[in-house]
Amino acid sequence: MNRTITPRLGDLNTLQKPAEATFAPAFYLALLALCAGGTFWYWRQWDHDDGFIVYRYVQNLLGGQGWVFNVGEAVNSSTSVLNPVLTALFALIPGLSIPYAAHLVGIFSLVLGIGFLGVTLLQQRKVTLALGLLPIAFFLPILQTTKGLETQLFLGLVMLLVALEMRGRDLAAWVVVGLLFLARPDGALFGIFKLFSSFIQNRKIPVKGPLLALTVAAPWLIFSAIKFHAIAPASLANKMTQGRVGGLNHGMDFLALLPQIIRNLSAPHSLLLLVPLAFFGAVRCVMNRDWPLSLPGCFAVIQIGVYTAIGVPQYGWYYAVAVFAFFFYVALGLNEVVALARAPQVRTTLGITSVAGLACLAAFQWAPSINTQLDPREAAYREVSQVIRERFSSAKTIALEEVGTVGFLVGPPLRIVDLMGLTSDNPPYYLGHENDRFFSAPPELVVMRFQGEKAQTPQTVSWGEAAIYTDERFQSLYELVWRTNEPRFPQVALFVFKPGVSSF
Q: pTM of the entire structure?
């Protein structure tokens, strides 16, 4: 949509001269590169089981097996389309592993989005907001983990969309809307926002822009409809089922976790300042009819509201955009406070103090909470993967609840039987309704998790595996051959189908 850009004074008293107008973006991009490089290096070794699910899709894609988790099964459990495709392209670079390629996709996405938006904000003299984006985007722990592998890509595209809207590049913005849908299906909300905004401003519904977005998304929609008989991944429906059966908190409990996450990311008593600033930034955005800067907030409110209503469980990545939006409006609120000062010297002092405050929050509150060391669970899954490769390399099937790490590290042709029913062509066995089917063709290997250091008991087994483990047929068919003794995380155990025993 075309709109006139009116510069406003929310700066550090910069961009007053042509030389400064050239220097400020260059200095900003240098800071951006420094933050991005440091973040990539710091997090390069960190991975999570859910990210490995995507890595296995990429692994099969590069191996010529197509878009599959298990070879020969038409199941799409990847939330994002764009992220695996970009990861596969990056992984074609000689010497670059799939996990490293995925980390680079996330960092480059943030660099593109934050860089483009930051320069745009500088040109509009919103320097406090531009600088505040750097610690928020690169040091918030919830944005740097691969638990929701597409999060960085999605947020990078959101920031790019905001920048294009600020510049009045309507058609380019519609292309980004198409990419946002491919990055995550709920990205389609931004298309709805744009249609609504266009109708309010022009009293008509645009045609060319939505067609561009549809053109971007159409190849995948057609492919998905033909191969999977669906246009959306199976992940959301599966998570909703998990919420309904009580495996994880959902509904109002899901909503209640959001302020707790924000509180944990805030210094003691700082919420007394951060909440009013975020509220002030959002209100000023509405009062100024600043449509582009309202996009992150609109999306976050609707997303959290819908997820609360439909009952998804408390998975951390569902909160990432909302947490980012909160601190985005904190930075915008600071920018607006700076803009209220009339004296240039006061604006400069307030601006420097505001940016320094956000930097201190990142350095003294966020940074100490970051632990990029391999957590005990991932260490255990990597260890059991090595045991499988060395001792059971001829095995063709394995059943487990968390399928990513083992699935990727052992790799195809090992077929994964996902007890949650998400990545493989079988029902969710954790519900206990299809045990006969499981034991009619029992997998050769089964991985289970148990709480604490005690022996394996029905009381300590993970809830997603309890239905199978507590079935008397499991004890008859399987024997324990290996287990880890990591006290800080549930014990991981490997069971093998007993030789010479007939299945039920």
A: 0.90
